[in-house]
Amino acid sequence: MPTSVPVKKAKAVATPDVPHGLGMDSSAVRRRMVEKLTAQGLSDALVQKAMGAVERHRFVDSGLVNQAYEDTSLPIGLGQTISKPSVVARMIELLRKGVDGRMGRVLEIGTGCGYQAAVLSHLATEVYSIERLRGLHDKARDNLRPFRLSTVHLLFGDGMVGYAAGAPYAAIIAAAGGDAIPQAWIDQLAVGGRLVAPVWGKPGGKGAATTAQALVVLDKTPQGVRQTVLEAVHFVPLKSGVA
Ligand code: SAH
Fold this sequence. Notes:
Number of helices: 6
CATH superfamily of the domain at 76-232: Vaccinia Virus protein VP39
Distance between the termini: 61 Å
Strand order of the largest sheet: 5-4-3-6-7-8-9
Structural class: alpha/beta
Largest sheet: 7 strands, mixed
Radius of gyration: 19 Å
Shape: globular
Strand content: 25-35%
Bound molecules: S-adenosyl-L-homocysteine
Number of strands: 9
CATH topology of the domain at 76-232: Rossmann fold
CATH architecture of the domain at 76-232: 3-Layer(aba) Sandwich
Oligomer: single chain
Order of helices and strands: HHEEHEHEHEEHEEE
CATH class of the domain at 76-232: Alpha Beta
Helix content: 10-25%
């Protein structure tokens, strides 16, 4: 009879390579970040938990690691930025609309460095994330690899047309702002689903001279589409085509 050799179970150990400047345990820094977000109005416990779990410092360049838990957007290359933690939290809180449990399939337009996709993976059954810049699509893949997130699907392409193969989506979130919400996104949103996106508009009405970008929440109901315009935001432009 073959003897069975007992296999020693590897113990879970704390990540050894926490970058300099963050101290021994980056979870304490994240906890403080979440406390600040909560003081500013973040009340969704699941979003608080997800923001506390994802190591934002792993998504920024080594020279910016010390700023990773400040509430600021940071450059990620190719003229793009990782969104501020408060904006990521706010948009996902809106997207979840206080519903208990995980969202179903979520579509993200603008993968960037992959940070928001990682946060979403804690809150959705599947995440489809599209990026139009090859360099950032590759960067996000490298950044996300160590997390082994089997439910995150990174796609290279023009997110203006959405991703029909994954539709219908329970939720759609855009990290880049255009002049209007593309019809493809609305078509690919499930009835009962919600979309959150930055959109350029004229706060002073149609004839007004000034334009501003604001967060728009769109609900797709059996009766039709309902849009709500919320606070001003500053996102990089939504562009068509790939590069
Ligand atoms: N969620 C990202 C934010 C990245 S910034 C993060 O956590 O880092 C927004 C991204 O949207 C940029 O990388 C930009 O290249 C991308 N983008 C702009 N227009 C796009 C389009 N039509 N399709 C896909 N990605 C687009």
